[in-house]
Amino acid sequence: MSDSQPPRDRKPPHHGRRHANARRDMGDCVRAAAAKALVPVITGKGSLATLDDHQVVARDRALFKAMCFGVCRTLPRLEALAAQLLEKPFKSRDADIQALLLLGAYQLLYLRIPAHAAVGETAGAARLLGKAWATRVLNGCLRRLQRESSTLEAEVDRDPAVALLHPRWWLKSLRQAWPDDWQAICEANNQPGPMTLRVNRRHNDREQYLDILDGAGISARLCAHAPDGLVLETARDVEALPGFAQGHVSVQDEAAQLAAVLLGPVVAPRPGARVLDACCAPGGKTAHLLELFDVDLHAIDSDAARLARVEDTLTRLGLSATLAQGDATERDWWDGTPFDAILLDAPCSGSGVIRRHPDIKRLRRPSDIAQLAQLQRALLDNLWPLLKPGGTLLYATCSVLPEENRDQIRDFLARTPDASEQMPDGIAWGQVSGAGRQLLPKVDSHDGFFYARLVKAGR
Predict the structure, then answer these.
(1) pLDDT tens digit string along 266-301?
(2) Model-level pTM?
(3) Spelled out in words, what is the top-level CATH class assigned to the domain 15-163?
(4) What residue ranges of the chain are covered by domains with CATH 1.10.940.10?
(5) Which residues, in sequence order, are CB contacts of 244 under 8 Å at separation 6+?
(6) One-letter-per-residue 3-state SS of 255-323
């Protein structure tokens, strides 16, 4: 809309007002959509895993995602502030209005959005949710937060769970596991993870692709540990990456890329080695192995929809593998031929990737850890007999909890006489953790991950 004023001798048209209202309505729409997306998370009934940003117009998609993920990342503080601002909690049927209050608080405290928009458009979104009565409540609460934010934040931050943005049980678990590192882990969890790329060596090495990025005006740096990894200075849409559609590059965290580094010495000397990627979705490690090595790769996953994503990834990269839907705690999918190597990227708590999936802090429960450890045990015990004598199993999780990592592998080795640890010498990343290696999440660097490489006796 033009900033020029209409001539004084004519009655100005109402176009400016109409355009301003349209912009406001668009702001209301993106906030209403974000509130609806957040309701399953704050009520503990769903996650952001299937978040669809196409429900808002293209110009608002970045804001929509930033608000949804940002609210989840800062949820302990936002909920504590909401409790201070409300005379009484909203009823359960009004979880969408609670979500709007959290969204408004997040905008005021964490986003560079003018306060009038953060307040007015968030409150106005209540009308789009069919609850016009809430506009005045939201306005009042958010205006008070605007005036008294310093005092209110200082008050709620006296609770360490609020100040560190983690539920109490998470803090207790991290402190017990990592007494010297737990606060640094929390700090890393509370920051968005960087956008890290894996360069497909079938097209370029990472130095060549770095030059291509530089020519496109995209700044990046080399990963410290993953030989195919680059970290972008600023995240961007994958479609804007040179050669993405042609399979020249993929998005994958540095820690996840180390799976291929650990399996490389095992499969590279064996052209056509038969390799199993169990629990393979979404397919990043599957693809990386195929980019680097001549292997006969079989990949299974129990979720058909996630397996379809693996197929899409391989198609984009021009790669092929034998894909099958199957439960890796069973063997009905197996043809009876043993494998030279198995990658078990086991289901886990996700405690090492909270910064990428901040809804984990709300959705995970203390009882989940023991249940996941039982599942990991079942996977190890079921897959080990599928390995050839002399074969290698690489166990991986995106967890930082010993119950899923160090302790899990210790117990497996104790009950499995023909298994032994075989981590390579000279590893420069992570730290020794029992028979494996633990990476902790680092700000502007890799996620939290655990690896243990196990070899089977008999050759």
Answers:
(1) 999 889 999 999 999 999 999 999 999 999 999 999
(2) 0.91
(3) mainly alpha
(4) 15-163
(5) 238, 250
(6) HHHHHHHHHHHHHCCCCCEEEEEECCCCCHHHHHHHHHCCEEEEEEECCHHHHHHHHHHHHHHCCCCEE
**Residue indicated by tokens 């301003």:** 20
- Helix residue ranges per DSSP H, 157-239: 160-163, 168-177, 182-189, 206-215
Three-class secondary structure of residue 457 per DSSP: coil
CB neighbour list of residue 238: distance below 8 Å, 6 or more residues apart: 244, 251
Beta strand pairing call for 419-421 and 273-278: unpaired
User: Residue 118 and residue 360: Cα distance in Å, rounded?
Assistant: 26
- Interhelix angle 115-128/95-110, rounded to 10 degrees, is 170
Work out whether strand 295-301 and strand 322-325 pair parallel, antiparallel, or are unpaired. parallel
Nearest 5°: phi and psi at 384? -55, -45
Q: Which of 72, 141, 279, 398 is catalytic?
A: 398
What fold is seen in the domain 254-456? Rossmann fold (3.40.50)
pLDDT band at 459 (very low <50, low <70, confident <90, very high): low
Q: Place domain 196-251 in its CATH homologous superfamily.
A: Sun protein; domain 3 (3.30.70.1170)
CB atoms within 10 A of CB 298: 23
Assess whether 398 carries a catalytic annotation.
yes
CA distance 349 to 366: 10
Contact 128, 64 (CB under 8 A): no
pLDDT tens readout for residues 307-366? 999 999 999 999 999 999 999 999 999 999 999 999 999 999 999 999 999 999 999 999
Task: Tell me how long the chain is.
Answer: 459
How do 273-278 and 229-232 pair as beta strands? unpaired
